[in-house]
Amino acid sequence: MQQFTGKGIGKGVAIGKIKIFDKSEEKVRRVSVEDTAAEFARFEEAKAKAIEQLGVLYEKACVEVGEENAAIFEVHQMMLDDDDYLDSIKNIIEEQKVNAEYAVATTGDNFSEMFANMEDEYFKARSADVKDISERVVRILSGSDGDSSSMDEPVIIVAQDLAPSETVQFDKSKLLAFVTHLGSSNSHTAILARMMNLPAIIGIEFDKAWDGKKAIVDGYKGTLTIDPDDEQLKEALLIREKDKEKAKLLRTLKGKPSVTKSGKKIKLYANIKGVNDTASALDNDAEGVGLFRSEFLYLEGDDFPSEETQFSAYKTVAENMGGKQVVIRTLDLGADKQVSYFDLGQEDNPAMGYRAIRICLTRPEIFKTQLRAIYRASAFGNVAIMFPMIISLDEVLQCKKIVEEVKAELKAEGIPFKEDVELGIMIETPAAAVISETLAHEVDFFSIGTNDLTQYTLAIDRQNAKLDNINDSHHPAVLELIRMTIENGHKGGAWVGICGELAADTTLTKTFIEYGVDELSVSPGFVLSVRNEIINN
Amino acid sequence: MKTFDYVITDEVGIHARPAGILVKEAKGMSSKITIEANGKSAEATKLMAIMSLGVKKGATVTVKVEGPDEDADAEKIENFFKENL
Questions:
Q1: Is B20 a catalytic residue?
Q2: Model confidence over A438-480: pLDDT tens digits?
Q3: Which domain holds residue B72?
Q4: Which of A141, A162, A189 is the last residue of a domain?
Q5: How far is residue A78 from each of residues A213, A232, A313, A480, A531, measured CA to CA in Å?
Q6: What does pLDDT average to over chain A?
Q7: Active-site residue, selected from the candidate residues B15, B32, B46, B76
Q8: CA–CA dist B53, B41 (Å, integer)
Q9: What's the domain count of chain A?
Q10: Smallest CA–CA separation between B33 and chain A, in Å?
C-alpha cells in the first residue's frame, strides 16, 4: 500500500484500476538488425494494427462528434499508407540495417518537420498528424500499446497534465477519476472534472509502474491510495455508499420549484459544454441552460466548425431542452483554451490577452458564422446569446451591430429565426462590474462569471497552482462586485445570473439570494443541492 | 498526355480530406497523374506529397494525365476537382 496526498478538486470517491496517460515522447533506440526483410515485415504488421485502431477511433468519433470531425482518423489511415512515407521507412531499415521503431520515428520526424516548415497555418498543423500516426506505430512496435482513448473498463486516469481537449476525448462512461501532477483547482480541466461529477486530484507526481494497479481516489481528502488494503477499501466503499444516499435524497427534490422561503423564484440552470450534456442537465432537473460553452465545438475539430456543424449542435440542444431557455456563450477561445488550427501567437499573459470577444470583434467572419448558426437555431427553441469578456460599452454596441447585420442577412435569405432572442453579457472583468449600470441598459441580462472575475479582481492567475492558497473566491471585494452588479443590473432593467463555480457554492447561496440574484447556473450534478439551499433560504 | 488547369475554390485549399479522396481516385486509374502547383509537382497517388504542395484557395494547379486511358481519366479527375475543390 502506498498513499499520496495532493489537492482534491472534484469531490467523491472512486475505486478502480489506474491508467497512465503518458504523453512524454517514447525514447526510441537505434538498434542494428541483420534480417531487414523480417524487420520490414514487423513494421507492416504494426502498420496494419495501427490502421485497424484508427478505424475503431473513426467509428467512435462518428458517434460522439459527428462524421465531419471524425474524418481526420480516416486521413490518418491514408497517411499510414502513403507511398513516400512507406518508402522512407523501408529505405532506412534496409540501408542503415536498423530496427523498425527507429525508422518510423526518423521518418515521422522528417515528414512532420516538412509540414511544420510550411507557411499556411492549416498545413503547418498537419505536422501533429504525422507525429501522431508515427507515435502510434512506434507504440505498437515497442509493445507499449496503450491506446489512451480506447479503454475497455472504467479507469482512473493518471497524467502529468491534461489539456481541456484531452479531457473531452475520454469516453465518459469509462472514467472513474482524474489524478494529475500539474493544473490548478480553477483550470478548465478541473472544471470539466467537476462538470462530469468525477473525483479529481491535482499535485500528485505519477510513477509509470502504477499502470494497471488498483487504487482509491478520495477527492474529499485529496489522497490517492495505490494497492489499498481491505480496511481502506471498506472505508472507501462506505463513503461511496453515503454519497449515493445523499444523491438519492436530493433526487426527491426533482420536480420541485426553486423558490426561496420569501417566495422568490430563482431560475436554476445548468452549465453544459456540448450536446451530450443536455441529458445530464435534464436528468438533474435543470430549468434551463445558463451557460452553453460553445468553445468545445471549436476544441473538438481540426478546423473552425462550419455554420452547419454549429447550427446542428445549437438546434439539438434547443430542441432537447424543449422550450427551456438555452444561453449560448459565443466563442471563448484564448487564455488556456488553445486550438491547433488557429494560432493565437505566443503571449506573455494570455489570460489578459487576445481572447474571447476580442477575437470575435477583430475576426467578424468567425463571429458571424457562429451568430448565424445561433439565430438559425432560435427557430427551434428558446435560445439566448451571451458575449464573454466584455470590458466596455463600445464592445457591447459593436456586438449588437454585428447581430443586426446577421439578422438582416438571414431575413434577406428568407431563413426563419426569432426576432427577440435575449442578448446578454458576461460580467467577468472588474471593469464591466463597475460600469454595469450603463451596460444594463443595452442588454437583457447579465451572467457573472466568478472564476475570471476573481482572477482579475485579485490579480491571481487561476492556472498558477502556487497561488491556490490565497485565491479566495469569497474575498469581500469579489462579493461586493457581485452585489453591485446585481443591483446595477436591476436598475438598468436586466436580469442577473451567476454562472461561475461560485454559483454552485452552497455556502453562498443564501448571500446571493439576499443580493437579489435572479438565476444560478451550475454543473448539472449540483442543480439539486443548490435547489435544496434555495428552498431552505 | 492530357493537361488541364484548375483554380482552387475550396476555402482551405487542397486539405487533408479531399487530398485523401483524390489519392483513392488516382490509385484506381491506370494513368500516371501529376499535379503541379507553386513550382512543385506531386504524383496524385501520394497523399503527403500532395499536401506538402500547400495549395491554397485561389491557386492554379496544372494536372497532367498520361497513359492508355488518359482521355477518360482526365475527364474523371477534372470532374473530381470541380466537385470537391
A1: no
A2: 999 999 999 999 999 999 999 998 888 888 888 888 999 999 9
A3: 2-84
A4: A141
A5: 36, 49, 29, 58, 52
A6: 88
A7: B15
A8: 7
A9: 3
A10: 15
